[in-house]
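Could you help me review a protein record that somebody else here produced? Do not assume that whoever made the record got everything right. The record follows directly below this note.
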Amino acid sequence: MVMNSTVNEFILFGLTQDPRKQKAIFGVFLMLYLATLLGNFFIVVTIKRSSTLGSPMYFFLFYLSFTDACLSTTIAPRLIVDAISQRKTISYKECMTQVFSAHFFGCMEIFVLILMAFDRYVAICKPLRYTTIMNRHVCSVLVILGWVGSCIHSSAQILLALRLPFCGSNVIDHYFCDLQPLLKLACMDTYVINLLVVSNSGAICTVSFIILLISYVIILYSLRKYSAEGRRKALSTCTSHFIVVVLFFGPCIFIYTRPATTFPVDKMVAVFYTIITPMLNPLIYTLRNAEVKNAMKRLWGRKVFSEANDK
């Protein structure tokens, strides 16, 4: 049930109100967003077109890159446009849509990271049964479950947001619509709703992070049986995954696992998991993965060469 009665639009305060800093924000975040789209596009197309990247790890990496592009697109364009706009408004419906989309793709990223860690666990701890356990059908079902789980999570978030009545200030002290800054504007006692947010988003982030930490400890313990070369290759892959996990979960846990209080640093912390991490993921996975780099060289090098010959 929608409780909103008097507010039809919100004003996003953004990262700053300083005109000079806003111009810098426009330039910097436009480049970050374009780099995010370009990097994730290359990974998605390379995995889809390359015959050498057919393992479950790259199957999940495909969905991680797709989710990164969608999560960034949910947040970054509004921030970029608002940086040079005089009127930084967002309609009530657009705001609710952004809440749903941000939590949907954010939750999907969590599930994909867990699936990638599970894939590495099976590959390292149960190598003889790897192809049986992680067959294409199982991987597809796991991804579908991730989409369903994300939809359930984001639906719960949007139902909480839709129940908030707004009758006073409509200025959101943030650069995108999220439940925490919206709770500050609600004309009601939001203690119970905040507990629900913490028990939902906060619990998902914290429990998932603990699960991932445990899985990586088990993986590292299991590597003692491997040869030096085997340990080096496995550690390289797991290190890439762990860097992504820390960059994404650290800010999420900071934002979603505390009482209904906001700090000035919240917006900069949110930048990490909404914009920085989706941009860094392609770099982390390509620079530290020889198979992806070689597949990109073969695919895109061949395309460039053929286009040059056509001219």
Observations:
- The chain has ten helices and three strands.
- The chain has one domain: 9-290.
- The domain at 9-290 is CATH 1.20.1070.10 (Rhopdopsin 7-helix transmembrane proteins).
- Residues 120 and 238 are 8 Å apart (CA to CA).
